[in-house]
Amino acid sequence: MTQPIPISPLQLDTLTRDYYESYDALAIAQLAPLAYENCYKPKFYKAPSTNQEVFNPYDEKTFGLRITPGSLIYGFYLPGLLSTSLPAKFNVQIHDVSLDRDFWDDPVPSVFLANLKPTYISLIAYPSGGTIGAFPSLLNSPYPVVGSGAFRVKIWETSGAQQRIELVFGVLEVVG
Predict the structure, then answer these.
(1) Which of 12-16, 92-96, 99-103 has the lowest mean pLDDT?
(2) In 3-state terms, what secondary structure has residue 38?
(3) How far apart are CA 152 and CA 115, in angstroms?
(4) Which of 76, 101, 116, 155 is most open to solvent, judged by the fewest CB atoms within 10 Å of its CB?
(5) Are residues 82 and 104 in the same domain?
(6) Which candidate, 142, 162, 174, places its Cα nearest to that of 31?
(7) Cis-peptide into 136, omega within 30 deg
(8) CATH number of the domain where residue 78 is located
(9) pLDDT attached to residue 68
């Protein structure tokens, strides 16, 4: 029996098609073969927890996050605000405890983890008159979760105003 050619349903989306110099299409091509695998299921992990999302001006907080070992982190979901089309202003550094390794050399601004490819608009009054749901900001290749699966997420609020901050990790969680 022949296996179908691995194609991701995301390749049918006009915002993620394989256009010249299209980063998302190349990252999606790495994930497409996993669409036919039964050993992974999509799951979302969020930092910080719901009761710690509100940051005062220039707050700096560190959170623990545990992801099932054997899983793959494929990207981040960071919604934009309806008023600016940009995400909440903050810097972030993610530290893989098992490998004693930071994701980036220096903390990165939230705009580098956002991906303004709208999928929905929410007109709920908080935050700032609504949010824009977006396609995830994909990593250049899936990040394997090893060891204990422990991560330390450090967030610095940089807008100078109280705001709600949440960073959602897109993960293909290993099954079984």
Answers:
(1) 12-16
(2) coil
(3) 23
(4) 101
(5) yes
(6) 142
(7) no
(8) 2.60.120
(9) 94
Q: Domain check: are 26 and 97 in the same one?
A: no
What is the CA 107 to chain-centroid distance, rounded? Answer: 15
Q: How far apart are CA 39 and CA 15, in angstroms?
A: 28
Q: Are residues 114 and 148 in the same domain?
A: yes
Note the pLDDT of residue 176.
Answer: 74
Q: Which domain holds residue 85?
A: 39-174
DSSP 8-state secondary structure symbol assigned to residue 85: S
Q: Are residues 105 and 43 in the same domain?
A: yes
| Nearest partner of 171 among 65, 97, 67, judged by Cα | 67
* Tens-place pLDDT, residues 10-56: 555 555 555 545 566 666 677 777 767 788 888 999 988 888 989 99
Number of folded domains that form the chain: 2
Same-domain status, 111 and 27: no
Q: What tokens appear for 105 in the block? A: 């050399």
pTM: 0.78
* 5: DSSP letter: P
Give 114-165 pLDDT, tens digit per residue: 876 666 566 665 555 566 666 788 888 889 999 999 999 999 999 999 988 8
